[in-house]
Write a structure and sequence with these properties.
The chain is mainly beta. A five-stranded antiparallel β-sheet has the order 1-60-59-56-57, with no helix packed on it. Strands 2-53-52-51 form a four-stranded antiparallel β-sheet, with no helix packed on it. Strands 3-4-5-6 form a four-stranded antiparallel β-sheet, with no helix packed on it. The radius of gyration is 26 Å and the shape is globular. The N and C termini lie far apart (56 Å).
Length: 836
């Protein structure tokens, strides 16, 4: 959400002495996209620390390794704990940033939604409910989607996200995927070398659907055989922004991007120069065209110098000549042309043209005038509300759709009034989160959606408590009242009452860092790293740009730890152990340091370089803090290390970790270790030697923070960047390495049950039917595993009503023993099936 204008003014003045922040802020929401360079550096620091430089290739290999790991629950367990969603969307009206939509021509209401960090989603009722589909993708960054209009079982999904940076973990693509079963299972049909590192659109020829176009960060690519083989037909420096096909003449293509508008009249075999060369200073461009009169072509044009909109350009002669018609609102992109620029035209009326930037403007006279219909400052849920920062405007299924920084919105009257379609879409991009010691409430900080709170387990949505961008969060485990979070850069926020109200701070901007503190001018990462002592919420350490800062008085003061210059290159992460609030650990991206005297400083450096430590764990009962466990970021890194001498030396005992970017670590009181990474969560019960995947009930998701919380019942809380939050009851997780040796047998829930699987045994390649009873309405999915615990295929993934249901599925062509795992609402049921 956006910050009030007066807060923006104060913050700009206060931080103007920082070289990184001295530039003019584009709009009142001083959010992630307002300083995209800083955000890029932040995300790059997580993954580029390892020796692997081909991240897409490394991540694809890590995906294979992770998805082939054994399930830990044990296939003889009738009923086992599974992940359950915490919260959901924000107020039932706002969620994370989507990137693309596509619609079925055969089934009314069926639509697909791609998101920046939350993968691909499907709805059968125009977005009233959604289910997650991209369980077999190697990345959750979706850039473009297309549905074959002659057969809606055929779907294309291009990966990557041009709105940020295609080298980032959260937005880097892995080519293009294709489904032939309505989005249930997917085949990787094109690499990044074939279609670019970040696919922005997938477009089908309106006459021949096997002709597929992909616009990407390096130009336009085309396939003539349904996505199997590809050829680059247009190269554009920078990033291709947008392409449209003349719906009445599919040989005529228009591409806008990197400051030019190009046209082809032979399906991309040849291209013109810049047909709109008379419009100077243009940079980002989105296009629009209507079947009602395709000689009229529109382009929403952003400026490369001011960052604002130049205006709506129009051609009345099939793209031969262009002129600016008007600039709605005097600059509707709010100095964010690189980030929010959208255009759509009604297919039934070429005069109905819509543009979006910060808000949405609608014209019914070909762009001559644009009434202002939406206001991001309105109350969420009101008819004139859509979240700010409009990325895509698109007609589909008889409606107009807007994809924004706060999710997806629908209009049935050409943009005059809007409805949220985010009620069941849990795609908030959480940078951090936490829960109280009793696991009664959770707090999360999300990209452009502030700091929000939800009750556990009764809360179905989050409620925003602080606007803007939210970062890492901490809840006191001693009083349940003291809560910390961050805004962007050198900003620390604090609440005294469980996140309900927040300290206004000395500047009146919710930043509690004391006036004059040198941290304010050190140029910290975009989301500042800090750590609070779990036994004393008044004690915390902050990783500044050059120094480590420390307080034991609840940030009434915040002082440099002397001699922090010994941490060459500056601190990247810090840790204050619960067992000793006077001990502070730090890492600098290659090795670790520790001090036991934060008042006088003096750091002991590790004798081993271990890489970029992303997170820390210590034993709260270890008074000497000898035992330390860390996750290590980067592909090709060691991923995990432990020390038994307070970080002086480190060992790397893990035998089977997948090559994925490890971002978080947590330790349970019983000694179990958990690692959060690019695609999910791992557990070790033998101090990090062997690891197993915790996959039941949680989608493949980039886990940014793990916390073990709860008293009698212990839960693992996973904060994700694109899938909201999930929790797992770890109290009764079977403690076994080999699932086939686990004979624990718990009676299944009477309300959630598997009635039968018939036939069983079944012949190879034949079909079987699973009948079940669902306890509640919501997402339900089933997976098939082989006898080694490796996932074979996804059988169903749908939003169901409570009560009886069935799933028909096809068995593999290999004989053997398999297990069907059905998951719903925090419970997984397992049944064996024999293939003969």
């Amino acid at each position: 959400m956006k910050k009030p204008a007066f807060v923006f003014t104060v913050l700009t003045v206060l931080f103007s002495f920082s070289p990184l922040l001295a530039q003019t802020m584009p709009d009142p929401d001083w959010g992630e996209h307002q300083n995209v360079e800083a955000a890029m550096k932040y995300w790059l620091s997580w993954e580029k620390s390892g020796p692997d430089t081909n991240i897409a290739e490394a991540r694809a290999q890590g995906f294979k390794e992770f998805t082939s790991m054994r399930r830990p629950q044990g296939f003889l367990v009738q009923s086992s704990p599974a992940w359950t969603q915490v919260g959901g969307s924000l107020g039932g009206a706002v969620s994370g940033r989507p990137t693309a939509m596509a619609f079925s021509k055969q089934h009314n209401g069926v639509c697909y939604l791609g998101t920046s960090g939350g993968g691909l989603w499907k709805s059968t009722n125009f977005g009233s409910s959604w289910v997650f589909l991209a369980g077999t993708f190697t990345t959750n960054a979706i850039g473009g989607i297309a549905v074959d209009y002659t057969n809606d079982n055929i779907i294309y999904a291009g990966t990557g996200d041009l709105y940020t940076n295609n080298d980032q973990e959260a937005s880097m693509g892995d080519g293009l995927f294709k489904s032939v079963d309505g989005g249930l299972n997917w085949t990787h049909v094109a690499t990044t070398g074939a279609v670019g590192g970040a696919v922005n659109q997938v477009i089908l020829d309106p006459v021949t659907p096997s002709t597929v176009y992909a616009t990407a960060n390096d130009g336009v690519h085309r396939s003539l055989d349904g996505g199997i083989t590809w050829k680059k037909i247009l190269g554009i420096g920078g990033a291709t922004t947008h392409m449209v096909i003349d719906p009445n003449n599919p040989n005529r293509l228009y591409v806008g991007g990197a400051g030019v508008i190009k046209r082809s009249v032979d399906a991309g075999a040849t291209w013109s120069g810049d047909v709109a060369a008379n419009i100077g200073g243009k940079s980002t461009i989105t296009m629009g065209i209507s079947a009602a009169n395709s000689s009229i072509v529109y382009a929403s044009v952003g400026s490369g110098s001011s960052g604002n909109s130049i205006g709506l350009a129009r051609s009345l002669d099939s793209g031969t000549t262009w002129s600016i018609v008007t600039n709605p609102g005097g600059g509707y992109m709010s100095n964010q042309a690189f980030y929010n620029n959208a255009c759509a035209v009604s297919q039934s009326n070429a005069n109905n043209v819509i543009v979006g930037g910060l808000d949405i403007y609608t014209s019914t006279n070909g762009g001559t005038s644009f009434p202002y219909y939406t206001d991001w400052r309105s109350a969420a849920g009101s008819g004139n509300y859509t979240h700010a920062d409009i990325h895509v405007l698109q007609y589909g299924g008889g409606f107009l759709w807007a994809l924004t920084d706060g999710g997806v919105f629908l209009s049935g009257d050409n943009g005059k009034t809007w409805q949220s379609r985010n009620g069941t879409l849990p795609t908030l991009l959480f940078v951090g989160g936490d829960a109280d010691a009793n696991f009664t409430f959770a707090i999360g900080g999300a990209q452009d959606n502030g700091v929000s709170k939800t009750e556990i387990p009764s809360g179905k949505t989050f409620t925003e408590k602080v606007g803007g961008d939210g970062g890492r969060c901490f809840i006191s485990q001693t009083d349940g009242l003291t809560v910390y979070s961050t805004y962007v850069q050198a900003s620390l926020q604090k609440s005294p009452d469980g996140g309900e109200t927040w300290d206004i701070g000395p500047r009146g901007d919710n930043n509690v860092i004391p006036l004059g503190c040198p941290l304010l001018s050190e140029g910290v990462p975009f989301y500042m790293y800090y750590d609070v002592c779990e036994s004393d919420p008044a004690t915390l350490a902050v990783a500044g740009g050059s120094n480590v800062y420390y307080t034991n008085d609840g940030v009434a003061s915040l002082n440099q730890i002397p001699k922090s210059s010994q941490i060459a290159g500056g601190p990247k992460t810090v840790h204050v152990p619960a067992a000793d609030p006077n001990t502070v650990f730090a890492s600098n991206g290659s090795t670790t340091f520790v001090t036991r005297d934060p008042s006088n400083g003096g750091w002991t450096k590790s004798s081993v370089n271990i890489g970029a430590v992303s997170d820390w764990a210590t034993d709260p009962t270890d008074a000497n803090v000898n035992n330390v466990w860390v996750s290590i970021a980067g592909y090709g890194s060691k991923h995990f290390a432990l020390s038994t001498d307070r970080g002086t030396t480190w060992t790397f005992p893990a035998k089977n970790l997948p090559n994925l970017n490890m971002q978080s670590i947590a330790r349970a009181p019983n000694g179990d270790l958990f690692l959060g990474h690019t695609l999910g969560v791992l557990r070790s019960i033998d101090n990090g030697v062997t690891w197993e995947a915790l996959t039941d009930g949680i989608p493949l998701a980039q886990v940014t923070k793990l916390r073990v919380r709860g008293a009698t019942t212990q839960y693992l809380l996973a904060t994700t960047y694109g899938h909201g939050m999930y929790s797992l009851d770890i109290t009764d997780l079977p403690r076994t390495i080999n699932p086939l040796q686990d004979v624990h047998n718990t009676a299944p829930s009477s309300s959630f049950s598997i009635s039968s699987i018939v036939p069983n045994p079944v012949m190879r390649g034949a079909s079987a039917t699973l009948t079940y009873t669902a306890a509640t309405s919501g997402p339900l999915f089933a997976k098939l595993y082989d006898e080694l615990g490796r996932q074979v295929k996804l059988l169903t993934n749908e939003y169901v009503n409570s009560g009886n249901g069935s799933v028909q599925f096809t068995l593999p062509n290999e004989s053997g023993t398999y297990w069907v795992v059905l998951t719903e609402g925090g419970k997984s049921l397992t049944r064996q099936i024999v293939v003969q």
